[in-house]
Give the backbone structure.
Amino acid sequence: MTEMTHEETAPTERTVIRRYGWLAKYDKETIYSILDAGLVCHIAYVIDGQPFVTPTNYWRVNDHVYWHGSAASRMLKGQASGIPICFSVTHFDGVVIARAAFNHNINFRSIMAFGNAELLDAEAKRVALKAFSDRVMPGLWEHARQPTEKEWKVTSVLRLPLNEVSAKVRTGPPIDDEEDYALESWAGVIPVNSVLGAVEPDPKLRPEIQMPGFVSKFRL
Amino acid sequence: MTEMTHEETAPTERTVIRRYGWLAKYDKETIYSILDAGLVCHIAYVIDGQPFVTPTNYWRVNDHVYWHGSAASRMLKGQASGIPICFSVTHFDGVVIARAAFNHNINFRSIMAFGNAELLDAEAKRVALKAFSDRVMPGLWEHARQPTEKEWKVTSVLRLPLNEVSAKVRTGPPIDDEEDYALESWAGVIPVNSVLGAVEPDPKLRPEIQMPGFVSKFRL
């Protein structure tokens, strides 16, 4: 994987990185751990000069990220036509309150990847969608009704090679200007976490059907 | 506000909406409540034919969304140059497990807005950044050290009028094909919530400085 910082791919960010002391991390382990912590990405692409950004589910297998959708979708058709795309994942981890208004911030982990998406063929599509199911909940694929030929046909899967990818991470307490530590202002972090609520069985679930173990074991 | 569905602004989504029974909502109240529930958006824009998508903080005042950054940022300079942008907010609310693999889904609330950003002048910038602080935590602006003239100068604020904006929302249990309700498969929803962790005072905080009430009152 070609490792690039946000600075190299998006020079626009350089000042921001310096200003806030954000850490541009770009080792493969960091990047993959951020990708593997999420289920929703934002993909930007251009059609007729108009940028679009679409939230969608994604998953990673080795050095690619994958997403899927309706084969009739103009978005997927456009993305599969070889146009450049920008793939982004962001985890919002906390609100950072500094002593000075200028130094408030947020804690976050984010990924940005650039490249051209590939449309998977029928065989690769089946492998990829089972991998998605397994990534969400091992056991779910075997438990649910398998797709019909018609369902397979109307589903497309795309993938992006992680060749140009960078991570940006901010963690920890606020960073204030040296002289501001003498102020009377409070400073600290309010962490933000994604947590699971109590499982809600489908109201139409037949009462004799028990919740499978893979559902209760699910973690984000 | 011109109200548009995702279908009108992004025809690519139409099939997806129909397929999954997602509800395209576009009344102002729904759109504003989704916007006001978030602090992080994704903004797509094009520079030299390359799409970028940048996560950033945002806030809403009346019929505009606002965001800020370094005045030296190529991203903000590009966005302020009158190019079309796409603004997106997504809340991931749950994992929807259906009886058929094809009908798994997620619950979510999302906003998509299109238009051209405006760069605020010096006076409007001050009003907007105080509004951002007040939106996050009323009382924070008065508590923290105010920006210096130099800090004001290196900060830019942009805004986008909410003229072309749509919401898409999926809530509730899975929707399976009629014949699949007879299967032995479990079905239901695992809710996902953003929650606050215990406040972490800055390790460098002087011990006599108490946590202000607006910090303990903060909610997402």
Summary: The two ends of chain A are 26 Å apart (CA to CA).
